[in-house]
Amino acid sequence: GIEIYQGKPIFYSIGNFMFQNETLLRLPSENYERYDLDGNAHVADFNDARYKNDTTGFPALVENWESIVAVPTFKGGNLTELQLHPINLAYGAPPQIRGRPVLANEELGEKIIGDLQRLSEPYGTEITMRRGVGYVQLE
User: Fold this and answer.
1) pLDDT reading at 15 higher than 80
2) Burial, 120: exposed, middle or buried (Cβ in 10 Å; 0-12, 13-18, 19+)?
3) For the chain, N or C: smaller number of CB within 10 Å?
4) Exposed/middle/buried for residue 116 (C-beta within 10 Å: 0-12, 13-18, 19+)
5) According to the 3-state scheme, what is the secondary structure of 95-132?
């Protein structure tokens, strides 16, 4: 959620901006040993063993693959507006392409902003939505 405190935003657990786990070329040998993988194993083998083929851990939770990019607007040194652009990190996509942030499509964007509205409500932060973008007005 988002809280506005003394005219400044506090972002609570808004998600991830990018993942790079699948782009690693190598890991320490202890990582492979922990999952009884031999010395010929690749990072992909380790990830499959660790995350049980994406059924547990961060790959299994759709919330980990959704976030926002906040764009502030200032006037005279004061924050006047936040634009909240929803992003998608490609939940469920093949490992070689997921983790790279792209703007969410309209349907997913509305869901992400809706989730953020719900999470920001306890802080008294009102988020409006126009054309798939969330807005917090401070003026």
Assistant:
1) no
2) buried
3) C
4) buried
5) CCCCCCCEECCHHHHHHHHHHHHHHHHHHCCCCEEECC
